[in-house]
Specification:
Blueprint: H1 3-11, H2 16-30, H3 40-47, H4 51-63, E1 67-70, E2 76-79, H5 88-96, H6 123-140, H7 144-158
Antiparallel strand pairs: 1-2
Helix pairs in contact: 2-3, 2-4, 2-5, 2-7
Length: about 160
């Protein structure tokens, strides 16, 4: 990987898919007490996510057990669990894969670097493991309810 490719990669570690998924789940989390499914067009509008892209994301989230869907006139999407029980890290892993910035630092999807002669002593790998651990600590310690509350507060402030 070139230096410019590395910089580009590290600047967008969270994909647009994960960002849109988190936004959509914040909308659904805010409505989770209503016990009514929210139509996809309404989720898309409130989350500021393109409808077509959201369809695929919600299918992934349903497959991973975060949301359920109901067909028909009163249909839509709703949360399967309490948002306070869902860690943000689990959502990101479901949509984007491992949290590690490079494959050799991953706990769940480890792959050695092809150009590394001694992975045990690799300073880059050690640093990226620290990045992974710090990232995981923040994301594991943040629930969807926490994120939805922060999003609601930001919207209230910024209008």
């Amino acid at each position: 990987m070139t230096v410019s490719a590395w910089i580009a990669y590290t600047q967008c570690m969270l994909t647009q898919k994960a960002k849109y998924g988190l936004r959509a789940l914040c909308v659904l989390a805010a409505e989770s007490g209503a016990h009514q499914p929210l139509p996809i067009h309404e989720v898309a509008q409130r989350a500021h996510v393109p409808h077509k892209f959201l369809e695929a994301i919600l299918l992934d989230l349903r497959r991973h057990g975060f949301v359920e869907s109901r067909r028909g006139k009163a249909g839509g999407y709703s949360m399967t669990r309490d948002p306070g029980e869902i860690r943000v890290s689990d959502i990101i892993r479901a949509l984007d894969g491992p949290l590690a910035p490079i494959p050799c630092a991953s706990l769940t999807a480890y792959q050695p670097c092809l150009d590394c002669e001694n992975p045990k002593d690799c300073a880059i790998q050690h640093l990226m493991r620290q990045v992974r651990d710090a990232t995981a600590a923040v994301l594991d310690g943040t629930t969807l309810a926490d994120l939805a509350a922060s999003e609601a507060a930001a919207l209230a402030i910024h209008g």
